[in-house]
């Protein structure tokens, strides 16, 4: 079975798709947790009317508003951040990424990789520093 991919040549389409998927996930989580729109809107710092637009995937909504709502709900933001990273690199986005309900495992793996990279970079810099210091003695 061939993987369908969203091409990142049209950034507007990618951003609209991200906002649409994000809005659906925000609404689903809010309903699941029995949080009202006024409660979430207040917590996220947006109006109830605008929260409705966010949940509807309005392309004019801002990603920081989606992130604020997702954070208030304890929802992973991987469905926003990973496609943005792929878009920045001009890589196509597997549509299955948008269909997965829970990307927290993928998010955890990305975070672990970042920490691993950071640790190895720090170790290399520290070793280089001590090697340079030893040469000066």
Automatic annotation (TrEMBL):
InterPro entries referenced in this protein's UniProt entry, alphabetically: Cro/C1-type_HTH, Lambda_DNA-bd_dom_sf
HTH cro/C1-type domain location: 26-80
UniProt cross-references to SUPFAM superfamilies, sorted A to Z: lambda repressor-like DNA-binding domains
GO MF entries: DNA binding
Top-level taxonomic group: Bacteria
Protein name: XRE family transcriptional regulator
């Amino acid at each position: 079975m061939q993987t369908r991919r969203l091409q990142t040549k049209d950034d507007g389409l990618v951003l609209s798709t991200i906002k649409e998927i994000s809005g659906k996930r925000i609404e689903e989580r809010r309903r699941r947790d029995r949080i009202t729109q006024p409660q979430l809107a207040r917590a996220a710092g947006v109006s109830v009317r605008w929260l409705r637009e966010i949940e509807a995937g309005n392309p004019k909504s801002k990603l920081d508003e989606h992130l604020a709502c997702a954070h208030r709900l304890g929802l992973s933001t991987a469905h926003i951040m990973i496609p943005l990273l792929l878009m920045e690199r001009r890589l196509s986005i597997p549509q299955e990424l948008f269909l997965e309900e829970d990307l927290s495992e993928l998010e955890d793996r990305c975070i672990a990789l970042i920490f691993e990279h950071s640790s190895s970079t720090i170790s290399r810099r520290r070793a280089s520093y001590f090697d340079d210091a030893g040469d000066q003695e």
